[in-house]
Write the structure tokens for this entry.
Amino acid sequence: MKPDPARYVHGTDAPWDEFQVVGKPHRKVDGLAKATGEAVYADDIQLPGMLHAKTLRSPHPHARIRSVDTARAEALEGVHAVITGADLPTKYGVIPWTPDENALATDLVRFIGDEVAAVAAVDEDTANRALELIDVDYELLHAYLEPEESLERHDPAIHPDNKKGNISKHVELSFGEVDEALERAEAGELTLIEDDYTFHGTTHAPIEPHCAVARYSPDGLLTLWSSTQITHYVHRTLSAVLGLDPAKIRVVQPCLGGAFGGKSDPFSLEFCVALLAMRTGRPVKMLWTREEVFYAHRGRHPMKMHYKTAADAEGRVHAVDAKILIDGGSYSSFGLVTTYYSGQLLTGPYDFPAYRFDSTRVFTNKPPCGPKRGHGSVQPRFAFEVQLDEVAEAVGVDPIEIRRKNFQGEETETVNGQRITSNGFLECLARVEEASGWRERRGKLERGRGLGVAGSMYISGTNYPVYPNDMPQAGIQLKVDRSGVVTIFTGGNDIGQGSNSMVAYLVAEELGMDVAHVRVVAADTDLCPVDLGAYSSRVTFMVGNAAIDAARKLRAQIVEAVAEAWEVEPARVRLVGGRAIDLSDSERSIPTREAFQIAEVRFDTLGSTGSYNTPTLGGDYRGGTIGASPAYSFTAHVVEAVVDEETGRITVENCWIAHDCGRAINPMLVAGQMEGSAYMGIAEALMEEQEVNRFGLHRGPSLLDYTIPTSFDTPELHALIVESVDPEGPYGAKEAGEGPLHPSIPAISNAVYDAVGVRLRHLPFTPGRVLKELRAARESRAGESP
Amino acid sequence: MQNLRLNINGDSVEVGAPSHWTLCEVLRYRLGLTGTKQGCDKGDCGACTVLIDGRPVLSCIHLAALAEDKEVTTIEGLRPLHQAAGGEGCDPVQDSFDRCGALQCGFCQSGMILSAKALLDEVPVPTEEDARAALSGNLCRCTGYTQIFQAIERAACERAGLEPTKPAWAPESSEHEA
Amino acid sequence: MLRLPEFTLTRPESLDAALALLKEHGDAALPIAGGTDLVPNMKHGLFEPKMVVSLADVPELHGVEETADGGLRIGAMTTLASLAVHESVQRYPVLAQAASLIAGPQLREVGTLGGNVMLDTRCQWYNQTYFWRKALGYCLKKDGTECHVVKGGKKCVAAASNDTAPALMSLGAVLELAGPEGAREVTIDEFYVADGIVNRDVRQGELLVAVRIPAPAAGHRSAYGKLRTRGSIDFPLLGVACSFDLDAAGVIANADLVVTALQARPTRARKAIALLEGADTSGEGFEAVIAAVAAAARKQCHPLPNIPGDHEYRREMVPVYVTRTLRAALDEGGPVHHI
Ligand SMILES: Cc1cc2nc3c(=O)[nH]c(=O)nc-3n(C[C@H](O)[C@H](O)[C@H](O)COP(=O)(O)OP(=O)(O)OC[C@H]3O[C@@H](n4cnc5c(N)ncnc54)[C@H](O)[C@@H]3O)c2cc1C
Ligand code: SF4
Ligand code: FES
Ligand code: FES
């Protein structure tokens, strides 16, 4: 068993009186490299003799492969290797309990775009020509395009080995006396709101398409550079699928051009370039086209949700009951977790005395869904926050007030057994209430303009790794140079959120150094200690704690050595502003560099390691650990929306985002995460949709047809940072990269209600749908009036 | 295969490339100027933006051969050009993007910065509406654009000796200084 | 990356040389202006020329000049960015506005008026990658036998999607073409035909040299309205060009109303135009005229599910955009665009 409390919690105070680095807007450690084009992303890697690989994909949504003949392709001049499913038969999946993917299909293809074969050739043109020469004989099978059909039948099954037919995962959990509250509602003692809500599919669309490069050295070492956000899991999975000793594999994440959860599975291209490099003895690169990125997907699961909320006359929630059908697409990916998250993460920032959810994820013959920013919880949050507004209206309570009334408090436990520590939700509400002019404006604006509020909660890391083990979740190594430079080695994946900068700020803070003297080497399995990856908003919390842990150990050595050299008490030595100073003698101070040298004399070569592991947490029931997190972030948004009743177009003019990130290590980067999250939520509400057409073909796998907002389409975003100072976060910090997405979507629906009196319960809020709803509302009004 | 003579970042270079190669490909895979990014390869995203005779152009749908006799500026060119003109460090636009947090994953940013540069070369102190218009062909998936607008405003204000607006998140008391 | 077909690029330096190359290579050659439509289309395998003839260095295709009769002659190679801001073009608000709303800013720097006039029609079943179209089994417009928009349809109904086309139609533009058989002129009205495969009456080896627009009347009013999802980049989901002359008394003459992105050819809203003609904009009844115009346009305009999105919604937007564009023209405002 792992130790009970979190390993290495460091307190929330500044190491010396007040923070030198933390809390201030600093440059990023890689900012100028990115601004000047120097930063190296996966596709920027060019190796001598490198071959280019391409993937043959299934043109059918569901089919059995009778045979694949690669002879003609292999014979083509310039082709160096062709591989098929037979070459990579081991199944894998990011969640070890549900290994149902193959790098290349072995028997079945499950969606249009599923990978069948790969070719390495001298250039892309040749590789493409070779793909045309691969002969695949398919036996077409019935394609499931609607999740309801997958519930009803499973012949033919999408995954014949799956014991549950086309059901990927079913979770039913109940806490407290749900039926009792519903009965009271039935009897008229409580108000009951019951409705259906729909969340559509959306995808991450990072601007960088996936790319991987592999090299197989003569000494048998395989190096993979990949645009991944989970270096460590890719390392493990490569080893399993290729049957290679993990000690013979090195995985490196170069600079990453955006991910948002879309690069947190092991992907076909990683296995293919690896095997092709091994087969050919030459480096191999595969760069996906934008179209292929849409097939890889792993985006937001479409969900059909039915919610019931029972509340009393004051608006206090007594019970919530949810039934959710989740369209998983063709593979499991993180689906097991998604299914739990769809219920487990709703139990804050409000107190539910009773709660039940019944979630079913099914397979369909569409690109596989997975974790997108706010994994699994954005959809139920949408439904519930809209429903809570309906409750507020039914009982006549202001929508912000009802959220205050139901606030769960700090240092508490949720109905499903999750530990809540810091909780700044009330302050979040207060900030958006004030900044938006809520009291003066809500319900009083001209018709067509409205304000809407929503709140949310999200995890700061999952308490448990995807494969059970008791090793630390995050590790850090520090190396000290006589020049005065400290190099941080971290397994953390910087995906643009700035985690490399974050560790540099923390180490600089602990050692009283200039951030410019801290270097970061990250996400290289040969050089860096393991971190589990950039998912579930775990990096700041876990890697941050590990960084403080390592730096604090180093600091103790340096202070001790300097104190000894100065023949003073260690308490008199302070590292600050790039110097070691004697607190009692202002004359005595040396640059950090000298302090390092003194310490090196005293302790030999300097360095330290640090780590973090979670405390034992979670409810005492099957699945109770899923959704457990060492800390939760909280958010409230107010959205100001304008509805053009003639065109049905919703324009979000303002979005006030108040987010409790515990402590803002760099407020500028926190604000960037908040703005980026809100932008992404608003975008998926208004203009994005990942969908297939009647043939099972992706409707428009391009950045022209999948419309992500331009600079014109993005509202004024106002980031209001709330700092509740979490007892276990690094200096009190929690996550900021996912939580602030959640409320933007229901807040729009609620603002539209304020603007035009129409409840939007079904996403996306396209102008056409809004017009229909407006028309229906007019008709029902006309029907009511005599 | 043909030989192209291109003027890139002030250098005249000769490079062999097939005539069906785009400027984006030649820059990235022949000249090693990988600062120019590719996000869609068909004109939809703006990641591949370079300046041709000072104007922003999409290099992924621009045949390399059609850039002959023109001045091409890529992201790699800004700092050297700024230094050659007597400046220090990076181009002020690049610096401002870094100081305002506008660079998250950075993948859109070379295109974004070049579009911003073209705007600032044309309009001394652009309004936010000007910035929105000038960047409306450069998709960014990370930032929600807000810090990008702030970076442009800051670069313009610094040049003009004006005070940029304080971002919503910046505490009243503290100086917003990175 | 998306691959282009292997071709030779030539850069003729005169119109004659360009025409000679096109004649010599026939079907195997295609002209390229800014390439902003042709290059993506080639990357999708929609065109596979062996030779691409650049018009960049053909002097006859460049330049904007006012003609003797007070009209305007715009060289085919004029970029959309310069068109949108050119002083003389401002006399025709509908054209300047349409040009300013095409695609995004970088694209307008190189995309040309000629390329826009000659733009290929668009369809969700056609503007897709080679892999995608092959998985579909192609369609009538290219490599296939079936239309996926109109079941059993024998004719391609891909949408005219060029924003300048309706604007130029509403201005009575004339196209100057040059081909192997010499030069000819054709009104832009006659030029567009209702065939989505090629919706232009363009002959083998012919080039568009310039677009001529007659002088605007003293009371010329015009505006462009464009429906699209985003504030930039997107092709039109609906385009409305409205143009008329207003006399001193506020009476409309020479009205024109052209709607695009419906079917293969921009649609002239004849009934609506007839209602506008002679209408007194200062009179009490003008609101009713606008309503009747909008209703007539809606009746005539039938967007098909050719381009992406909800075609019923596009239809609903016809009267709204017609009304708004008409009002904008009258108020000397516009463009009508949600941003
Ligand atoms: C992301 C994106 C968004 C777009 N959005 C819009 C939009 O909103 N509205 C819109 O109208 N267009 C849009 N376009 C299409 C296109 O960019 C423009 O229409 C542009 O004007 C085309 O001009 P070009 O010079 O680049 O044409 P090219 O691509 O060079 O040529 C287009 C076609 O015309 C032919 N051609 C060009 N010039 C001549 C000539 N002088 N004589 C004979 N044939 C000629 C070419 O052979 C080719 O078939 C968009 C394109 C992209 C990639
Ligand atoms: S309308 Fe569309 S589907 Fe029909 S033939 Fe034309 S391009 Fe093909
Ligand atoms: S890569 Fe050129 S526009 Fe997207
Ligand atoms: S910073 Fe990542 S796409 Fe703009």
About this structure: The CA atoms of residues 91 and 216 of chain C lie 7 Å apart. Chain C touches chain A through 30 residues (CB under 8 Å).
